[in-house]
Write a structure and sequence with these properties.
about 220 residues; alpha/beta; Rossmann fold; 2 domains; eleven-stranded mixed beta sheet; 6 helices; about 30% strand; globular; binds zinc ion
Length: about 220
């Protein structure tokens, strides 16, 4: 786990957003290899083993073909920008290496396919590249700070995960999800085909102000 991405992690339990405090026993090249992340609010602890952060039991997924075409398509859907932060859920993790060859963006992999995860764990270049981290065992609440991502590509799109994904996105951030999934509140659809839709977050600041004026 790239050390600067630790700042973006939050306790997934149901309480106010809380930073996680890292106690590392082994680090390398600005990556935490062996460490414990502790929640000061509820006392929960999450282990980092072989550079990967464990929030629960491993979740399997189907890998995506990492071709130049699929990577270009994903980069366009996510509107990949240099130094932006993107989350690739499940099978999308197959594209991490190819995407980072297109644009130098920071990438968090959530429960990537086993092949991608073991590649990371082996300590080969992709895992230890700056600006990349892998989270495993993610449930219905994302362990990520609100409004921290430029884009998120969803694979395991339960209604809870899809709704919570909107919370993670900055204003104008992109959400990509399977076409069968209903659009969550807080985003506007930009395009869709038979496989995926892409949407962007709509600012709710105006809406809140209007509600307040009405109340006064
Ligand atoms: Zn907690």
């Amino acid at each position: 786990m790239f050390v600067e991405l630790i700042d973006r992690l939050r306790c997934p339990h149901a309480h106010a957003d809380t930073w996680l405090v890292a106690a590392a026993t082994r680090t390398a090249h600005r990556h935490l290899i062996e460490a414990t992340l502790g929640c000061p609010e509820c006392g929960a602890e999450f282990e980092i083993r072989d550079g990967e952060v464990w929030f629960g039991a491993r979740v399997e997924c189907v890998a995506m073909p990492a071709t130049e075409l699929t990577a270009m398509r994903a980069a366009a859907l996510l509107k990949l920008e240099e130094r932006g932060l993107y989350l690739l859920d499940g099978g999308w993790g197959s594209l991490a290496g190819a995407l980072r060859e297109i644009v130098d963006a920071d990438v968090i992999l959530a429960d990537p396919p086993s092949a991608v995860a073991s590649e990371s764990a082996s300590g080969s270049a992709p895992a230890l590249s700056a600006g990349q981290g892998t989270l495993l065992g993610i449930g219905n609440r994302w362990p990520i700070a609100s409004a921290s991502l430029h884009g998120l590509a969803l694979d395991r799109a339960t209604p809870e995960r899809t709704a919570d994904a909107v919370r993670l996105l900055r204003a104008g951030g992109r959400l990509v999800a399977p076409a069968r999934v209903a659009l969550p509140a807080g985003v506007r659809e930009l395009a869709r085909d038979d496989r995926h839709w892409v949407a962007e977050t709509v600012g709710n600041v105006v809406g809140l102000r209007r509600a307040k004026w009405r109340a006064e």
